[in-house]
Write a structure and sequence with these properties.
This protein has 362 residues and is α+β, with helices and mostly antiparallel strands. It is 49% helix and 14% strand. The protein is built from seven helices and seven strands. It has helices spanning 81-90, 95-101, 158-165, 176-210, 218-248, 258-321, 337-358; strands at 39-45, 50-55, 70-76, 109-112, 117-126, 132-141, 145-150. A hairpin with a 4-residue loop joins strand 4 and strand 5 (117-126). Helix 4 runs parallel beside helix 6. The chain is rod-shaped. It starts with 38 loop residues before the first strand and ends with a helix.
Length: 362
């Protein structure tokens, strides 16, 4: 799983190129990651057997047809629609499902069919550069298999692969429905890491604001964080409905004891959703706090300027009076007039400073 780093998130999201006015069930790739070839990874296992196989030919998936085993087939490369369509025909997938598989803008959902279930979800993680990645993934659960479709290589399932290979936990003793739970659990667990990283960034921004250490980039970073939490919210909130429906689903390929694990999954996604709402409010508060801090700084500057202007008003008044060009002025010919007026100005200046200090305006 990619290591999370606290760096600025890159959030520019390309606009989707949705195909319009096409026949329902037409496979048109809608995404942003072009792959030159489709990569197939097959993990076939039971309690005492394990085989892992990689291939560039999707037809190799047809070799694994032993109902005594559980088969997980992971397909990378959604832009090769012809190969996706052929694979879908092999597993008798509905054309509308294939259309949703290659449409990466599809909202997370669950569809129930007689022989299988179709689940759409979003994987969230950060790469080594701190860039937030939200990737489309489609899962098909059959009686003894799970198909997972991704745009390109890289996912959050390394822990599941390790548990299967090294026979950790109970996954090797369970059926395909438990494998689907394990994959969804890995996706949702990674939500915690992404959301926790958002929390760390919020705390860092709060510390900077409380210490009055703003720079020109701070407001832009807060704005980027706001966009990040909105993207995360858009990806995560539909999963709550998906997992809730899956937990209540009465389908032949979902075993009753798997429901206990799915209920735990519901608790996790509810907790994540609540945290996202909390952090969303905190980010809005950061924006308000930043603007308030800037306003307070401006007020402090204006207060100093106002005090300086107030001090010089009487001094300017005196200077203005004695700067008039009248012939008859009482102190005009007195040899100490200049020094007396300077002394009066200094006294007024000191008295006003004392008054402002006493009022705690300075």
């Amino acid at each position: 799983m990619p290591k999370l780093r606290t760096k600025r998130l890159s959030l520019r999201r390309p606009k989707s190129k949705r195909a319009l006015n096409q026949i329902p069930g037409t496979l048109t790739y809608v995404g942003h990651k072009e792959s030159s070839e489709t990569i197939l990874e097959v993990i076939d296992y039971n309690t005492n057997y394990f085989e892992r196989y990689k291939s560039k030919n999707p037809q190799d998936a047809l070799k694994f047809e032993n109902e005594a085993n559980v088969t997980w087939i992971n397909i990378d490369g959604l832009n090769n629609t012809e190969e996706i369509e052929n694979l879908g025909k092999r597993f008798n997938l509905h054309p509308l499902i294939l259309e949703d598989i290659v449409n990466t803008d599809q909202r997370p959902k669950i569809d129930e069919y007689q022989d299988y279930l179709f689940v759409v979800a979003k994987m969230l993680y950060q790469n080594d550069d701190g860039q937030l990645l939200i990737e489309h993934i489609s899962l098909v659960l059959g009686k003894d298999y799970v198909l997972s479709f991704q745009e390109a290589g890289g996912d959050v399932f390394d822990g599941v692969r390790e548990r299967i290979e090294h026979k950790k936990g109970r996954i090797r003793n369970r059926n395909a429905d438990y494998l689907l739970f394990a994959l969804l659990d890995a996706i949702i667990d990674n939500y915690f890491l992404v959301v926790d990283d958002i929390s760390d960034k919020i705390e860092g921004f709060e510390d900077q604001l409380f210490e009055n250490r703003q720079d020109d980039d701070l407001i832009h970073e807060i704005q980027e964080l706001k966009r990040a939490i909105l993207r995360i919210r858009r990806a995560v909130f539909p999963i709550r409905e998906v997992v809730g429906r899956l937990e209540k689903l009465n389908h032949a390929i979902i075993e009753e004891n798997t429901g206990n694990y799915l209920r735990d999954l519901v608790d996790h996604i509810v907790q994540i959703s609540e945290n996202i709402d909390i952090y969303r409010e905190m980010i809005w508060s950061l924006m308000d706090m930043y603007m308030t801090t800037i306003s307070n700084k401006m007020n402090e500057v204006m207060k100093v300027l106002t005090i300086i202007a107030t001090i010089f008003i009487p001094l300017t008044f005196i200077a203005g009076i004695y700067g008039m060009n009248f012939e008859y002025m009482p102190e005009l010919r007195w040899k100490y007039s200049y020094f007396v007026l300077l002394g009066i100005m200094v006294i007024i200046f000191i008295l006003m400073l004392y008054y402002f200090k006493r009022k705690k305006w300075l």
